[in-house]
């Protein structure tokens, strides 16, 4: 996300603590830009779901044991073609490949462990840094995705 | 009966307790925990609990909310009860399909259909 794109509808860097009003405020701003960029409701749902899951993973797992005043850093960029969101926590990181597949029969009734799987299901790319404390999420507009396609 | 700060609407119809959500977005961790505790107390109060959870008007559901539903389902099954889910928005239903949770929950299109399914 280093090269500025002239088509950028909105971009920025935000630091958030685990406060629902602050999270809702950030998501509202980001989703308003997603709407202005012309994405459909289906895309909007996917972007919101993945952002919400990544933020909750950062606060709940990444920041486990840290003071609640420690913020998560969010960098985002929205163009008519793509949405990129990078969420970095201040925790020690984790190994994404070590997370059990929640869709296996033996894990279906386990109440936790679905956030990362949902992010991967709804987004084009989900990439972690080597330390495992930063996730870059990319959503590319599907060819058929227009606001006219909204259900 | 739901308490004044409840995030749920609760109504008893015959032997079935129908539960709905006040909020369109079920994302807040604190609310999800409170919802789980309130439904658990409803389950505990019934000898053979029959619960219908309606998602009418619910737009977003986090994986933490799915986890609470799984815990509720396990608890009802352990008590010999029955759980039905209904009125789920197509986009949210897709989340159930992607996670394969549609395999462990009995999901109906409407509350009316779900009500008829209780034995």
Name given to the CATH architecture of chain B: 2-Layer Sandwich
The total of helices of chain B stands at 4
The proportion of strand residues of chain A reads 15-25%
Fill in the CATH topology of chain B.
Transcription Regulator spoIIAA
Report low-confidence residues of chain B grouped into runs of 5 or more: none
**Highest-level CATH class of chain A:** Alpha Beta
Distinctive features:
heterodimer; A: 151 residues; alpha+beta; Heat Shock Protein 90; five-stranded antiparallel β-sheet; 3 helices; 5 strands; B: 119 residues; alpha/beta; Transcription Regulator spoIIAA; five-stranded mixed β-sheet; two-stranded parallel sheet; 4 helices; 7 strands; globular
Concise summary:
The complex is a heterodimer of chains A (151) and B (119). With 151 residues, chain A is of the alpha+beta class. Chain A has helices at 20-36, 41-62, 115-122, and strands at 10-16, 72-78, 82-88, 125-128, 134-140.
Architecture overview:
The complex is a heterodimer of chains A (151) and B (119). Chain A is an alpha+beta fold and 151 residues long. Chain A is built from three helices and five strands. In chain A, helix 2 runs antiparallel to helix 3. Chain B has a single domain, classed as 2-Layer Sandwich (Transcription Regulator spoIIAA), CATH 3.30.750.24. In chain B, 40% of the residues lie in helices and 24% in strands. Chain B contains four helices and seven strands. The model of chain B has no long low-confidence stretch (mean pLDDT 94). The chains are: A alpha+beta (151), B alpha/beta (119). Chains A and B meet through helix 2 and helix 3 of A and helix 2 and helix 3 of B.
